[in-house]
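Deliverable D4.2, example record:
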Amino acid sequence: MESIRTTDLKTILHSKRANLYYLEHCRVLVKGGRVEYVTDAGKKSLYWNIPIANTTSILLGTGTSVTQAAMRELAKAGVLVGFCGGGGTPLFSANETDVEVAWMSPQSEYRPTEYLQAWVRFWFDDALRLAAAKQLQTKRLERLQQAWTAQPLRETGFSVDVDRLQALVRQAVDQIAHAPDSTALLTVEARLTKAPFKLAVDTVGYGEFTRAKRGSGTDAANRFLDHGNYLGYGLGATATWVLGLPHGLAVLHCKTRRGALVFDAADLIKDAVILPQAFLSAMRGDDEQQFRRQCIEALTRDESVDFIIDALKAIAIETAARAKPPAVLP
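Output generated by the structure prediction step:
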């Protein structure tokens, strides 16, 4: 059989890839030159192909294993691999990390450093880092308003009160612009996180809802939010890897955590895509698999990876342009 060349696997840009996988109770291996996952059906083993050239990231849940050969092929195709608990949460790995997801990043010595160099030009300046965080939160709000008023979401039954949404966005944008420091911006961000929940609850008629801490929620909406957020983290991790940005160089979330930039990146699309889907699925009585499929379809339809990559690129270039030139040593 003709071997697959690495160059053939990278013909699809990460921003255009369609697939994000969560797997459980299976083995991931190479069979016939392809990466597949194997499930057991009685005395039979069923093999399912993973289109790695069109995949951004894979979450390996309960009862999974992966072979060295499969990891080699996944790395060739630039697929991020993360280990997680059942249902996609919590995420964990043996890698040293202080973020809920420890991604096994594909190894490549030839990725461009343009955006990393731009990012570090401003990152050590508190004022510029605050400016970058404000850009990120503003883009998050713009995406939220765009997605929640778009026809595809309204056709699913999520018909939000547009006037109320626009008032929420205007108020938040004003508060973000006037935040004097990162502490104040985090306070604004905390309020911003709660407001869309209330609006979504009222839109679908969910009733009483309190956002529970990760893993402690007993109602369907909380479980779906936890699950969907980790799908968002997968896309955030993919986007930062594509741009060569280390996960520790966050602009808003805790700057002492090794993966906080993944949180920042995922914020760009979590409210816009995952939040409404969590409440829609909860109202319909969907199970985890149905919610996950709907969520991934929505993320793909919304071109969420594209948006995260473009947003981070814009923040890097625009903020770096405001940085002072580096001092020239004598």
